[in-house]
Amino acid sequence: MGNTSFILASIGVFLVVILLLVIILLVAKKYLSPSGNVNIEINGDKTINVPQGSSLMTTLNENGIFLPSACGGKASCGQCKVQVLEGGGEILDSEKPHFTRKQIKDHWRLGCQCKVKGDLKIKVPESVMGVKEWECEVISNKNVSSFIKEFKVALPPGEHM
Question: Could you say which DSSP state residue 149 is in?
Fold first, then answer.
């Protein structure tokens, strides 16, 4: 009976320790993770109220503003450039190769690397503001090389690029 009691006591202690760790993680998440909504002012004329925590690029995409991004948010193409006038924090090392010193001084950031943690004032190129989203038919999808793909689609009737 001694071994059985020891095993049950060990299991009980293990469960209590795991339960305490879960409680600590939940409390830490509540106080350390961003929550709630913030305002993003875009080009001085449009303001959106969004939940915080995602990247600026993802947040803008969810609100119909599509920043170009060939790399899918991995900071390798440098196409999702935005000027963060207020908020946004410091530029990350992964962003620096995509900007000149003047651009860094003028608060340019990659939308895929800038996290929405508080209110922001940003400028995006006017060309981005008119970008449309289409449902297209895939005509062909060929691998040209390891990292290059030829992807042809048919636009909806009446649309053109």
Answer: E
- Which helix (H) or strand (E) segment holds residue 6: the answer is helix 2-32
The answer on 42 and 14 residing in a single domain is no
| Eight-state DSSP code of residue 129 | H
Claim to verify: residue 48 and residue 117 sit in the same structural domain: yes
CA separation, residue 68 to residues 4, 62, 82, 108, 113 (Å): 63, 14, 11, 15, 14
Q: What is the DSSP string of 64-102?
A: T-----SSSSSSSS---EEEEEESS-SPPTTTGGGS-HH
Pairwise CA distance, residues 81 & 95, whole Å:
10
Q: What does the CA dihedral 56, 59, 65, 68 come to, rounded to 10 degrees?
A: 50
64 and 101 assigned to the same domain: yes
Residue 28 lies in domain: 1-33
For the question of whether the overall pTM of this predicted structure is more than 0.70, the answer is no
Tell me how far apart the alpha carbons of residues 79 and 73 are, in angstroms, rounded to a whole number: 10
Per-residue pLDDT tens over the stretch 35-64: 789 999 999 999 999 998 899 999 999 998
Q: What residue has token string 């450039």?
A: 81
25 φ, ψ to 5°?
-65, -40
d(Cα 15, Cα 17) in Å, to the nearest integer? 5
The amino acid at 39: N
